[in-house]
Amino acid sequence: MEKVGVIGGGSLGTAIAQIASQNVDEVYLHLRRKELADIINQTGFNNEYYPNTKLNNNIKAITDFNKLKDCEIIFLSVPSSAFRETLSNLQKFINESVILVSTAKGIEYPSLKTMGNLIEEYFDDDYVSLSGPNFASEMVLNLETVSNIASKNKNNSKKVKEVLTTQQFKLKIIDDVVGLEICGVIKNINAMANGICKGMDINENARYAILTKGFEETQKIVEAIGGNPSTVKEYCGFGDLVLTSTSNESRNHTLGMLYGQRIIVDEDASGIVVEGKKSIKAIKDICKKYNTESIIVDFVYDVVIKHVQPKIAFKRLWEKIEN
Ligand SMILES: NC(=O)C1=CN([C@@H]2O[C@H](COP(=O)(O)OP(=O)(O)OC[C@H]3O[C@@H](n4cnc5c(N)ncnc54)[C@H](OP(=O)(O)O)[C@@H]3O)[C@@H](O)[C@H]2O)C=CC1
Ligand SMILES: O=C(CO)COP(=O)(O)O
Hints:
alpha/beta; N-(1-d-carboxylethyl)-l-norvaline Dehydrogenase, domain 2; 14 helices; NAD(P)-bd_dom_sf
């Protein structure tokens, strides 16, 4: 393949570009800031996100969407909050045959649309979604990683797999697009739940009980929304749920820990992307819409949205466990 594009030159977009650049002639990495694009092109380093990692020479930073018109595949690696605006801007520039790949783990509120639903609104429904236990900071270093991809169009999944597969980066194709996307959203809420408990210094037995409950409830929610509950056993389900619920590298887990310590953070002002906080109301509404109870979602909603004292919220949660 000659050219692929990546929109969003942040942590994940830069890592995707670094991986794809091993398999294609040229990768166009689209950024919104010209100064950073110039630095990348002049030095070979994305000094804001990865100051110590040299990017491959065939990665070209761009700020003009028009340059993406010859790309066969375009990865959308901006946060979910920027997804609609990005698609709307992109619409004028690319042709219908391009394969769009969503890598964002969020959901639009209050529409409750997945990132795939948004792509359908502006383009068509043969997009590919990618998700897994994937810290971008490891991917950019070519460390061993597996991700799931799903699409209604199997050929598109195969093309994306071909472009990203390296000795270290493996991809497994599954059929369940909506299940894969929803797993990526719910794991962020579980990462926050486990972070809150860690921040409160809740004992380990209880924390892993909550993780187990989160796994079970993810299956229920995925099934209710029309996905396949067995997707939750995949890398994008179990793998990502456990990774981000237990690792301090996860931003969602870390924000949860701060809430557990009763430190309320304005993460919007910090500029740090925390998809879980933005998804809580949407997943709460989804549970209501599909008549599905989730005591973990309720716990995070109480602490983060309603500012209930973590101790009181945890007591309520524990009363509901296996009752
Ligand atoms: N980081 C990770 O380990 C992983 C992240 N993801 C998902 O990928 C998505 C992106 O996260 P991540 O890369 O970490 O986030 P980062 O904050 O590292 O990067 C976000 C990128 O999107 C750009 N951006 C932000 N807002 C807008 C906007 N309104 N319009 C245009 N561009 C915008 C940023 O530009 P600028 O630099 O100018 O702010 C930056 O290039 C999230 O949904 C996340 O859940 C999935 C798997 C792993
Ligand atoms: O999704 C991720 C790893 O799979 C990244 O998690 P955080 O957004 O919580 O950092």
